[in-house]
Each structure stands twice: as C-alpha cells, then as structure tokens.
Write a structure and sequence with these properties.
By secondary structure, the protein is of the alpha/beta class. 42% of the residues lie in helices and 17% in strands.
C-alpha cells in the first residue's frame, strides 16, 4: 500500500471510537488508501468481517495485500447503496460504520483528476471515472442560474451570481475545459494559480469544492448512506464520521442528534427526546502534533454516535 495515496486523519481516535469487537461486522464506506480499513482489520479476530466501499477503482488497485485478507470484501460502489449491498451479501446487522468523507490525497495530487487548481489538468473531478458528468460538463452545460446555485449552496459563496456571470462570459469565448481555464474564468483575467492572492485562493478553493460536490452529489450520497447505516446498525453499534467542511458536518451533526435527515428532534407527550443515537464524540479535531505531521488533517472533525 503506497503511503502517498492517502494519510488517514485521526486514525487512533477514529478506531477507538468504533470500539471494534473482534467478531464484529464493520463497514468502511470510504476505503481510499485503506489506512482506516487496515486498522480495523488489525483489531478484528478471525471471525470478524470488514466490507470497504470506494467509488474509485484506483483505491482498490492500490490496496495491496489487504485484498488477500479473507475477512475483507471490497465493494466498488457509491456508498449511497450501502443498504442494497449489505442485502446482497446477506448482512442484516452491523457493529460499526466508518465514513471518512471527501477525496483522498491521491485525488488532490493527481493533475489529470482535475480536483486541484494547483496543477493544470482536465476539468474532471469525478471520483468514479467510469461514468457520469464531469466538472467541465457542469461548467459549460449549466445555465447561469444553476451555476450560481451550485456555487452558493456548495461553496457558500456570497458572490455566486457574479462568479457564475464571469464563467458564462468566459465560456462564450471558448469552452472551459481545464483547471487553468477555470482559474482564469473565475479570476476574470489571465492569471495562473501561482499568481492568485490569498483571498482569491480561498475563493478558488470554494469554487472547486462546490463543483466537486455537485459532480459527485456528495451530500445526496451522504444522506442516503446515513439513513442506511442507521437502519443497519445493531444496538451498541457505532457510527463514526470524519467530515472536512461545515456543510457535511452540519448534516452529520443533525442526523446523529435526531436520527433524522431534516434534523427535527422528536419528542413524546412528556417532552422526552426520542433519538436512535447516543452521542459519544461531538466534533473532535486533530491534535496539534498530528496537524504538524499531516497539515491536511487540520479541517478533520470526528463525530461518533452509538446506536441505542
Ligand atoms: C478521505 S478518503 C478516505 C481515506 C481513508 N480513510 C484512508 O484511511 O485512506 C475518501 C475516499 O472515499 C471515497 N468516496 C467519497 N465519496 C464516496 C461515495 N459516495 N461512495 C464511495 N466512495 C466514496 C473517495 O473516492 C476517497 O477514496
């Protein structure tokens, strides 16, 4: 397993939160570089089982010797289909579900995947390159209002309308096909990523985040997965989620608090709160020492809940 594919964030804290039972059945819905999956397997006995999902086949191709572990099954799928896949494998109850959301270092650091404006590359951003629309399809195909909506909802950019207008103006001259094209379109002039001011870099990061979330329907997949995980977890089973930005974190926080995707807390006649979870970790962040070693762990937030 190559270390540069990904460095797992908050590995110790996450595995501790999962309270791995040696004979339990676990799902890691975001295999990535396999760091968290390997640690779960280390804690599992010979009767334990681990199912790991990733919608990117390159994660599996990089997985190395873990693939030969008889307790391990790789599922090449969007984790939104967690329920259907467990049904397929005849698994009716889970002891733990782990989600480490977003993209891997491999995605960010490979120019041809188009996730980062640090390199020039095709404007792709699909986690699963075997199908679906690319970021270039979104940027060149959406009308101005829809582009503004994506930038506003997923990038929380107040200037979304102005940015969408700039992108549309630019694509009228020629299609926006590369990450450099998008940098120029958003900046409104011919600049390279290296010439951006810190403020422009922040804006660009949010534009790229918004497009990535739209291309991969990240919040939609997260909603479906949380619902399925909640239904599959046995009493005492653990749900551990690492989030990297406020949109996904808010969704996970509300879901763990209420057991509902709309975040509405159900109360009975006497005002007692009914929720399927007991909150264990409410937004733990990486230690200073970890952030120094792995600066990308800076934005990680760990939430853990136990199924009641
Ligand atoms: C942050 S990385 C996970 C890193 C992993 N925990 C490790 O230790 O290396 C996120 C991974 O989840 C995958 N992923 C993100 N959303 C997904 C989804 N909806 N379905 C399946 N895989 C997804 C990405 O392709 C990526 O490989």
């Amino acid at each position: 397993m190559s270390e540069t594919y990904h460095i797992p964030a908050m590995l110790h804290e996450t595995i501790e939160g999962l309270r791995v039972r040696p004979d339990g059945t676990y799902v890691d819905v975001t295999f990535g570089g396999g760091g968290h999956s390997a640690a779960i397997l280390d804690d599992l006995g010979s009767n334990g089982r681990l199912y790991s999902f990733d919608r990117d086949i390159e994660a599996y191709e990089n997985a190395g010797s873990i693939r030969d572990d008889e307790r391990f099954t790789f599922v090449h799928s969007d984790f939104r289909y967690l329920g259907q896949w467990m049904d397929y494998y005849g698994v009716t109850e889970l002891d733990g579900v782990l989600a480490d959301l977003g993209v891997s270092f491999h995605h960010f650091d490979t120019a041809e995947r188009g996730f980062s404006f640090r390199f020039d590359g095709p404007l792709d951003m699909r986690m699963n390159r075997q199908g679906g629309r690319t970021a270039a399809d979104v940027v060149n195909g959406y009308n101005e209002d829809d582009l503004a909506r994506v930038l506003y909802l997923y990038g929380e950019l107040k200037q979304s309308r102005q940015l969408a207008k700039r992108i549309v103006k630019c694509r009228e001259q020629s299609p926006v096909m590369t990450t450099n094209d998008l940098v120029r379109a958003v900046a409104g002039k011919a600049v390279t990523a290296g010439q951006l001011t810190p403020l422009q870099k922040k804006e660009m990061t949010l534009v790229f985040q918004a497009l990535r979330m739209e291309v991969n329907d990240e919040l939609g997949a997260l909603r479906d997965m949380l619902q399925a995980a909640s239904e599959l977890l046995a009493p005492g089973g653990m749900l551990a989620v690492l989030t990297y930005h406020s949109l996904e974190d808010r969704l996970v926080k509300n879901f763990m608090r209420s057991g509902r995707l709309d975040g509405e807390i159900e109360k009975d006649f006497y005002g007692n709160i009914h929720t399927p979870f007991r909150l264990i970790e409410k937004g733990l962040t990486a230690s200073e020492e970890e952030v120094e070693r792995n600066p990308r762990a800076r934005s990680a937030k760990l939430r853990v809940a136990e199924k009641i």
